[in-house]
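Problem 12. The chain below contains 131 residues. Write out its predicted structure in token notation.
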Amino acid sequence: MVTYAPNPGRRARRTRDARQEGQAAIEYVGVLTLLLVVAMAVVQLGIAVYAAQQAGTASRSGARVESYDRASMGGEQAARASMSGWLADDADVRVQHGFDEVTVTVRIDIPAVIPMFDFGDVTKRATMPRG
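Solution.
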């Protein structure tokens, strides 16, 4: 009768494999967290650039309308109409008349992806001759 002794190396190998699987899971969570932070930073940068583009467009269209004598709306109304609604609600639009020109300044607070952070605001100004 032949008896087989248990293989001690097999149990040690199984324990080592289980530990490596746990380590891989922890590394995966760490990398996933890092990728999530990078993705949120990219989204935040996109929102900031979009807000700056919207402020520039609003200031130009407001100045263009305000410089036209027979316009059917005012420069502030035109500036707000040319922005996305979610940015236009909190925008600060100022119209300044000079002797032969008009200047429209638009300030928009940059919305934050994570509410606890403040990314400041963006201000754009456009000047047009009165016509």
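Discussion. The longest strand covers residues 101-109. Students who got a different answer should revisit the alignment rule from Section 12.3.
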